[in-house]
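Worked example

This section walks through a single chain of length 183. The input is the sequence exactly as stored; nothing has been trimmed or padded.
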Amino acid sequence: MGTRVSYPVEVKQKAVEMRLAGVSMKEIMQKLNIKNKTQVQTWVRWRRRDPMDALFDKKGNQEASPLIIYLQGCGWGWTKQDTYAFLPQLAEFVKEGYTVASVQYRGSGDAVFPAQLQDVKTAVCFLKANAAAYNIDPHNIGVWGDSSGGHLALLLGLTEGLKEFDGDREYVHISSRVQAIAD
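Given that input, the structure is written out below as tokens.
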């Protein structure tokens, strides 16, 4: 199968173009110095799918994909949270086969802590409960945030299983545990 390596976008695009033109996998791997056949197959598969399928559960995409939850920072409410600010950057993850959700949470001016953490936990549990509808792999979820969003991502991981941070939320029977956290 080979080791997973990160390749420049240009190499990925060229590999996909060559494969769609009927060039053999062996020839693509030799010409572009690609070590992992599976990566090329993944690039081709994601190139052929409609990126909106994951959102709208179209019949063209029945595969569950890993989920990245993004938490936009807002200085705990000192500034307005702009959940659309990083869409261009987040779209790059979608091109690589991930589903991305940008989650909004209440600022400290709207509700006192731990309401913000409870909002994030509720969002995680909602996405897990509805994973089939959104083609999400509920066992392959990562959370990433910046500024106060990064703090909440860390708190999500550090408070798993501590009932005092769950609050009175929907989906309380579903764990808010995730597999990866980045700040």
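What to look for: The longest strand covers residues 136-145.
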